Amino acid sequence: MENKREIFHVLTRRFGLLNKNCCSVGGFDISTVQSHILYEIDKQNTPSMQQIAETLAMDITTFSRQIQTLVKMELVKKTPSSQDKRVSLLSLTTQGKFVATSIDHSMNAYLDEVFSHLNEFERETVIRSLQLLNGAMSKSSVCCTPLY
Amino acid sequence: MENKREIFHVLTRRFGLLNKNCCSVGGFDISTVQSHILYEIDKQNTPSMQQIAETLAMDITTFSRQIQTLVKMELVKKTPSSQDKRVSLLSLTTQGKFVATSIDHSMNAYLDEVFSHLNEFERETVIRSLQLLNGAMSKSSVCCTPLY
DNA sequence: AACAATACTTGCATTTTGCAAGTAAATAAA
DNA sequence: TTTATTTACTTGCAAAATGCAAGTATTGTT
């Protein structure tokens, strides 16, 4: 079957579910968006608000409020940059780091379970293919502009 | 050893963008969720509300309201079942069918563009891998049901 | 006939979202 | 140096999305 849209439709829904189901850690209820924010802060080195918002393609105002929530939950710390006083640098608190790591573990556990339904060869092929796909998407010129 | 979570994190984000950018068709502004609803109604044969809500793993009350919106937009028609008067059968209006088809075309165009960055062999491998992955997810006990 | 189960719908109350509009700081121009 | 512009956010709405509780109507079951 060559209908790509069908494949992506199902995949998208499943990814959504996967991300939804992963994120209850030790009393904290983390939304999908919030888990993505934590992930990116963890990955990047004391990034600014702009950087993360742009990476996640989020509206900066929505992002600002999400960060406020995460700061209230004591998962994220906002430090004013000494270089540029307009900029807020983001980092995870100890708790935030713990939550991010926990989510990472459960996600990888989920994914391992999923991949356990494939044999070793298929597993490697799929992983390599997803990397290829990621690469292709990053090269795409129409990625973030509306198509008609 | 590749980090699956990283791969999925990026893929999820990109898929989200893809779905977000797809959905402005001839004056209609369709949200991602709505496009998924249209897609499923189109695919299934006069399904009930429950069926689609369950397929998309949506809360039935949220779904009910989304359908009300789509009915107001004259994209979806709700017909009471003659078999069971509690049931509403869903179908696309002519306009709805047009919108669904347009979105389908845009999505496929986008995906073709993405895949154009791969060679023929990679393309086939990736498609086949995504199908494998879908299959594995459908077998998974930890997520992704009841999609099929 | 009485009760439970199903298929929705409506009432909140909360959360999420994004466009305007605002503040403060850095940079460019006059 | 002063003024204007840009940048990095924050707040004020208002609209949309979400989900639990509680409702209505219909069907299925003792």
Automatic annotation (TrEMBL), chains A, B:
<protein>
    <submittedName>
        <fullName>DNA-binding MarR family transcriptional regulator</fullName>
    </submittedName>
</protein>
<feature type="domain" description="HTH marR-type">
    <location>
        <begin position="4"/>
        <end position="135"/>
    </location>
</feature>
<dbReference type="InterPro" id="IPR000835">
    <property type="entry name" value="HTH_MarR-typ"/>
</dbReference>
<dbReference type="GO" id="GO:0003700">
    <property type="term" value="F:DNA-binding transcription factor activity"/>
</dbReference>
<dbReference type="InterPro" id="IPR036390">
    <property type="entry name" value="WH_DNA-bd_sf"/>
</dbReference>
<dbReference type="GO" id="GO:0003677">
    <property type="term" value="F:DNA binding"/>
</dbReference>
<keyword id="KW-0805">Transcription regulation</keyword>
<dbReference type="InterPro" id="IPR036388">
    <property type="entry name" value="WH-like_DNA-bd_sf"/>
</dbReference>
<keyword id="KW-0238">DNA-binding</keyword>
<dbReference type="Pfam" id="PF01047">
    <property type="entry name" value="MarR"/>
</dbReference>
<keyword id="KW-0804">Transcription</keyword>
